[in-house]
């Protein structure tokens, strides 16, 4: 089997690269290790419904906004999107007090200024920074935590502004302002969720690939890239299939990709060591629930709930879960009641050390008890803003960073790929190009994670590949 381009991994970045290249007339093949495509964008069948894994909402889809043109080119504006409440697309609750995030930079600042009138001028400066984030360079050396400390005097405000940032790793020692701004800004432009599960987006991309003659293979776990004279010649799967191509794109973590390449002069030991030494962001613990009919009304926003003003560090501390993100599925049947609610909380990999050597479905009763205990804590905290939630749950499906590790191949179950450190930007950010001339990386570990970051990286990966 010979192709122009073989793409390893069918996460968002891999599928987007495949669509763009197939539309150029290239013979494209996508290889996916799991039974279904999509990576963390896919939805999984449970209890007669489909539950999301990683896709909960997206920002900047309106005309003239940050993600609009890219999604339009990919055909992703054609799928059904629901715009979240402009007066409060995110509701952040800290120690019982709730703060609304309003759509639009100036409206965001004004609304937040009503809560914190002494910080109104600082808030307008903050949104101007977010609005200009598209002109930021990843090589600019500035930390998000330091910026917020300098910009605002009120500690509660600093926590509120970061309260919806479960969509990144809040790490005061490392998080670059570049990442913080790029991830948050699009959601203030406009926020949207799918009218359905994440499989809608995956199916659309796969159909576009097939429409233009591309191919996708599931249960195709690539374990080796064979090299000759400094170029990759084939991708070999664990069942012995060989996929030959002129060029290759890996949507896997860069450390995983480097491990697929045999010793060769093109890939120096220093590069391998750098990839292997990359630190990874935390994982997520998720409770996906099926809600009994006619029990909880759909809410057109996300809820971020914290027991106290400790948004940056709560996930590192012992004790019950003290911070969750709550997402509501749009009712596709036209009902005013939702059928699914997801609850997410950050989880560091070291909390799972007892089960490092285990595989999904074989972790034992202690692991099941651990998961159920954390899930109960998540539900209890969510219920403070959703009375009756516990009684309304018909079924629940629980995943931990180990689940992400085993199903998506993410080292340490990382939710957002390799950690970026503002102290060392040259080491933190990776180009799609690799030391091997016909091998390219894409995905969340290169520059930015999230739908916007991964999509922008996919376009850059294709640009570099087509210019070779």
Describe the structure.
By secondary structure, the protein is α/β, with parallel strands linked by helices. Helix content is 32%, strand content 22%. The chain contains 15 helices and 19 strands. The protein has helices at residues 12-23, 68-74, 105-115, 120-131, 144-151, 155-161, 177-189, 199-211, 254-260, 269-277, 365-382, 389-392, 401-408, 425-428, 450-466, and strands spanning 2-8, 28-31, 43-46, 49-52, 58-59, 81-83, 90-94, 97-101, 191-194, 215-217, 222-228, 231-237, 242-250, 283-291, 302-306, 323-328, 340-347, 393-399, 439-441. The strands form four sheets. Strands 1, 2, 10, 11, 12, 13 and 19 form a seven-stranded mixed sheet that branches. Strand 3 (43-46) and strand 4 (49-52) form a beta hairpin. It starts with a strand and ends with a helix.
Quick check: average pLDDT? 95
Number of helices: 15
Biggest sheet, open or closed, and with what strands and sense? Answer: 7 strands, mixed
> Which regions have little confidence, pLDDT < 50, spanning 5+ residues?
none
Q: What percent strand?
A: 15-25%
Percentage of helical residues?
Answer: 25-40%
Helix-strand blueprint:
Blueprint: E1 2-8, H1 12-23, E2 28-31, E3 43-46, E4 49-52, E5 58-59, H2 68-74, E6 81-83, E7 90-94, E8 97-101, H3 105-115, H4 120-131, H5 144-151, H6 155-161, H7 177-189, E9 191-194, H8 199-211, E10 215-217, E11 222-228, E12 231-237, E13 242-250, H9 254-260, H10 269-277, E14 283-291, E15 302-306, E16 323-328, E17 340-347, H11 365-382, H12 389-392, E18 393-399, H13 401-408, H14 425-428, E19 439-441, H15 450-466
Parallel strand pairs: 1-2, 1-13, 2-10, 7-15, 13-19
Antiparallel strand pairs: 3-4, 5-9, 6-9, 7-8, 11-12, 12-13, 14-17, 14-18, 15-16, 16-17
């Amino acid at each position: 089997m010979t192709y122009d381009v073989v793409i390893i991994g069918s996460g968002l970045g891999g599928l987007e690269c495949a669509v763009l290249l197939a539309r150029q007339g290239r013979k494209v093949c996508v290889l996916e290790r799991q039974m279904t495509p999509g990576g963390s964008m896919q939805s999984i069948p449970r209890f007669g419904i489909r539950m999301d894994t990683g896709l909960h909402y997206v920002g900047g889809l309106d005309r003239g906004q940050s993600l609009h043109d890219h999604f339009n080119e990919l055909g992703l504006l054609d799928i059904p999107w629901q715009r979240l409440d402009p007066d409060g697309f995110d509701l952040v609750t800290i120690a019982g007090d709730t703060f609304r995030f309003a759509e639009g930079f100036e409206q965001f600042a004004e609304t937040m200024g009503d809560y914190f009138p002494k910080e109104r001028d600082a808030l307008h400066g903050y949104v101007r920074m977010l609005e200009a984030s598209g002109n930021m360079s990843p090589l600019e050396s500035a930390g998000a935590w330091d910026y917020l400390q300098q910009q605002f005097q009120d500690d509660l405000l600093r926590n509120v502004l970061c309260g919806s940032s479960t969509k990144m790793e809040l790490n005061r020692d490392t998080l670059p302002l570049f990442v913080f701004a790029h991830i948050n800004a699009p959601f203030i432009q406009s926020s949207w969720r799918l009218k359905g599960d994440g499989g809608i987006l995956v199916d659309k991309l796969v159909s576009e690939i097939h429409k233009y003659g591309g191919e996708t293979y599931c249960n195709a776990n690539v374990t080796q890239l064979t090299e000759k004279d400094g170029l990759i010649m084939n991708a070999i799967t664990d069942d012995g299939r060989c996929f030959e191509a002129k060029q290759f794109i890996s949507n896997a973590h860069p450390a995983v990709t480097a491990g697929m390449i045999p010793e060769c002069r093109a890939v120096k030991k220093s590069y391998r060591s750098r990839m292997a030494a990359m630190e990874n962001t935390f994982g997520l613990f998720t409770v996906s629930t099926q809600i009994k009919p006619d029990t909880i009304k759909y809410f057109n926003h996300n809820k971020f709930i914290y027991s106290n003003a400790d948004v940056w560090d709560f996930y590192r501390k012992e004790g019950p879960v003290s911070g969750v993100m709550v997402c509501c599925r749009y009712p596709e049947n036209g009902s005013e009641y939702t059928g699914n609610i997801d609850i997410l909380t950050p989880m560091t990999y070291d909390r799972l050390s007892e089960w490092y050597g285990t595989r999904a479905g074989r972790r034992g009763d202690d692991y099941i008890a651990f998961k159920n205990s954390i899930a109960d804590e998540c539900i209890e905290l969510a219920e403070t803003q959703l009375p009756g939630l516990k009684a309304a749950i018909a079924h629940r499906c629980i995943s931990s960073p180990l689940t992400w590790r085993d199903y998506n191949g993410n080292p340490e179950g990382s939710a957002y790929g390799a950690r970026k450190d503002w102290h060392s930007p040259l080491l933190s950010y990776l180009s799609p190009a690799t030391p091997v001339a016909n091998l390219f990386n894409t995905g969340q570990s290169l520059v930015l994670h999230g739908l916007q970051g991964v999509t922008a990286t996919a376009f850059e990966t294709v640009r570099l590949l087509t210019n070779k």
